[in-house]
Design brief:
With 316 residues, the protein is α/β, with parallel strands linked by helices. It has helices spanning 11-22, 53-63, 77-82, 84-105, 140-159, 181-193, 215-228, 245-256, 281-287, 295-309; strands at 2-6, 26-31, 45-47, 67-70, 110-114, 162-168, 171-172, 200-203, 209-211, 213-214, 234-237, 242-244, 261-264.
C-alpha cells in the first residue's frame, strides 16, 4: 500500500513510517507548516495545515494513497486547556477536512484516525472498558478526540469509507517530547549524572497509576489495522498493565544510576487517580496484535537515546 501519514514529523510519526516501511509499504507524508519536509522514508512530503482543505484534496489526487494514517493533531492535554479553540480546529475540523478529501477523491482507501483512550475519562469502572462502552470525556483534549472519533465512524457508516479509529493509551519511547513525564524525568536524571544540575528534582503526584505502552508496539498496531482492521470499527490499543508513577521514576533512577532528592511541586501536583482498565480483545481478534516490548527495555532505550543526544558536562 501507499500510505499517507499525517503528523509525520512528530514522535509517533517517525516510528510509524519506520514500521510501515519495514512491512513493505510506501509512505507519503504531511508535516505542519514550518516543519522540516526531509522525512526519512517518505517518497513525498508536504507541509500543510489541516485547515487547508483544498491543498489536502490536491495532495490526495496527486499522490493517490491507498490508505491514510491520521496522526496529526494537538496531543498535549495542558496545552489543549489553554487553547481550546485551536484544539477543536485542528483535532476535529482537521479530521473532517481529511475525511472529505478521501470521500471525494479516494473513497476506496483505508483510513485510520488515531484518537485516544482518554475519551473514557478517569472514573473507575466495574470491568475493563470495551469500545462500545460510553465515553466520559473530561478535558478539552478528550472532547476533541471523541469528536474526531465520531466523525470518522460517521463517514464509515454514511459514505461506506473503510474508516476506523484507534484509541491508544499513553505511549512512550525514544524521541518523545520532554513535555511528557518519562522523557522529562529522564532528561533531568541524566543532567544530574553528568553534573549539569544538582541532584534534586521537582515532581507532581507520584502515586497516580498510568498505562505506558512502547510506541513501537503502538505503531505496529496501527500498521496491522491498516492491513486487517474492519471498516467502521473503533479499536482500543493498550498493554493492559498499570504502573504507579513512583515505580516508573524509581526504575529510571536505577537505570541512570542516580538517587536525587525529591520535592513535590504544588504547581505540578494533580490528585491521585488511576486510568481505567482497557479491553483490547477486539484488536487481538481482528489483527493478532499483542505487545512485544517489555517496559524495562523501553526505559533502557529512552535512557540510551537521551545519553546519545545530550551534551557532556563541560570541564572546569
Amino acid at each position: 500500500m501507499r500510505v499517507w501519514v499525517t503528523g509525520a514529523a512528530g514522535f509517533v510519526g517517525g516510528h510509524a513510517i519506520a514500521e510501515l516501511r519495514s512491512a513493505g509499504h510506501e509512505v507519503v507524508a504531511m508535516v505542519a507548516p514550518g516543519q522540516d519536509t526531509a522525512i526519512p522514508g517518505s517518497l513525498a512530503t508536504e507541509a500543510m495545515d489541516l485547515a487547508e482543505s483544498e491543498r489536502l484534496a490536491d495532495f490526495v489526487v496527486r499522490q493517490a494513497p491507498d490508505a491514510c494514517l491520521h496522526l496529526a493533531g494537538i496531543a498535549f492535554v495542558p496545552w489543549a486547556w489553554e487553547h481550546p479553540q485551536e484544539t477543536i480546529r485542528v483535532n476535529v475540523i482537521g479530521t473532517l477536512n481529511l475525511l472529505e478529501a478521501f470521500r471525494v477523491h479516494r473513497p476506496s482507501a483505508r483510513f485510520l484516525t488515531v484518537t485516544s483512550a482518554q475519551i473514557y475519562g478517569h472514573i473507575p469502572r466495574a470491568a475493563p472498558i470495551r469500545e462500545e462502552d460510553p465515553p466520559v470525556a473530561d478535558s478539552v483534549y478528550s472532547v476533541s478526540k471523541w469528536s474526531a472519533d465520531c466523525c470518522t465512524q460517521l463517514y464509515a457508516g454514511r459514505y461506506g469509507l473503510h474508516a476506523m479509529t484507534a484509541r491508544p493509551c499513553n505511549h512512550i519511547g525514544p524521541g518523545q517530547s520532554e513535555s511528557f513525564v518519562v522523557s522529562a524525568f529522564t532528561r533531568q536524571l541524566i543532567e544530574m549524572e553528568r553534573g549539569l544540575r544538582p541532584p534534586r528534582i521537582r515532581v507532581g503526584n507520584l502515586e497516580s497509576l498510568r498505562e505506558f505502552t512502547d510506541v513501537r508496539d503502538i505503531v505496529r498496531a496501527y500498521r496491522l489495522l491498516l492491513e486487517k482492521g474492519r471498516a467502521g470499527r473503533a479499536y482500543n490499543v493498550a498493554s493492559g498493565h498499570l504502573i504507579r508513577i513512583r515505580e516508573l521514576f524509581d526504575r529510571l533512577c536505577a537505570l541512570v544510576g542516580t538517587n536525587p532528592d525529591v520535592e513535590v511541586d504544588p504547581a505540578l501536583y494533580r490528585p491521585t487517580d488511576a486510568q481505567p482498565d482497557i479491553d483490547t480483545s477486539r484488536l487481538r481478534e481482528d489483527t493478532g496484535w499483542q505487545t512485544e516490548i517489555p517496559l524495562e527495555e523501553t526505559l533502557r532505550d529512552i535512557v540510551a537515546d537521551f545519553r546519545a543526544r545530550m551534551p557532556q558536562a563541560t570541564a572546569q
